[in-house]
Amino acid sequence: MGGRRVLAAVAAAGVLTGVLSGCSSGGSKSAGAAESAASSAASPAAGTTAAGTAAASASAPAGGAPDPAAPSAPGAGSAPASAPAPAAAEAPRGDLETALLDDKVVGQVLPDAKAMAGWEEEKRRVDTADHKVTCTGAAAASCAGKPLSGSVRFSSGDVVVRFLVDTLPSRDAAAQRLKENYASYSAGPFKKVDTPALGSESQAFQGPLAEGEGVGIVVRSGTVVASVTSEGGPVDVAATRKFAVMLVKRIEQAQSGKAPDAGLGVG
């Protein structure tokens, strides 16, 4: 009997160790895609996401995928006096299987002037994930049912904030895209920043961006990989995270069949 108890204790310890290892290695990790390599909203050092590179639209640190919305790397900056401070919001936690493959819905997921009150919209774009088709006018028909990449850029004073969403056909495909984004950041001069988790899993990174040191946050929300970056002001992880909270809420609203309307003032 004594021998059996010893063996049971050893087995239990092994299981606990495995669980803890899994939690530390997975979970809130996430990176951006580069803006100069045709993929990913917050990808560092010439790293860019592969196939369907939806995550390639936003900005990118030291080399990366081209950003349809505006070339620049992810950055985090606290809005100057002229930029309204984002309101605090509770982090969403969804992991829905709904795939967002409608360009109109993806366009609605991207924050608008109402959601970004006090900020000026500069560029907005929705493409197929490979960026071969821009979903406007007659070309929109070619986007139906395909993985998509949407991006939008706002500015206020010297601060620029970029949002990117890449839609995948499944959670597994989105999880794989997120791993590719993580690898991109790991290849550059970026360091992970500890922040409360967002969506299904997330990670914040800090490093040199187009306008200096900044922060990029990459999130997976179910089947969507999203990136939020800001630059042009002092590094402010908390402010960048509030933008990311808003974006994830809008993604979850769309995945639930609701019209995305979350804004900076929505808790």
Can you offer a commentary on this structure?
There is one protein chain. By secondary structure, this protein is an alpha+beta fold. Helix content is 25%, strand content 21%. It is built from 4 helices and 7 strands; from the N terminus they run ααβββαββββα. The chain has helices at residues 2-25, 103-109, 171-186, 237-255; strands at 120-128, 148-156, 159-167, 191-193, 201-209, 212-221, 224-231. A 7-stranded antiparallel beta sheet has the order 1-2-3-7-6-5-4. Strand 2 and strand 3 form a beta hairpin. Helix 2 (103-109) packs antiparallel against helix 4. The radius of gyration is 19 Å and the shape is globular. 54% of the residues are buried.
List the helices and strands and how they pair.
Layout: H1 2-25, H2 103-109, E1 120-128, E2 148-156, E3 159-167, H3 171-186, E4 191-193, E5 201-209, E6 212-221, E7 224-231, H4 237-255
Antiparallel strand pairs: 1-2, 2-3, 3-7, 4-5, 5-6, 6-7
Helix pairs in contact: 2-4
Task: Please identify the structural class as seen in this structure.
Answer: alpha+beta
Order of SSEs: HHEEEHEEEEH
The radius of gyration over CA amounts to 19 Å
Distance between the termini: 56 Å
Number of helices: 4
From the structure provided, what is the oligomeric state, counting identical versus distinct chains?
A: single chain
Shape: globular
Strand content: 15-25%
Give the strand order, joined by hyphens, for the main sheet. 1-2-3-7-6-5-4
List keywords for this structure.
267 residues, alpha+beta, 4 helices, disordered N terminus, single chain, 7-stranded antiparallel β-sheet
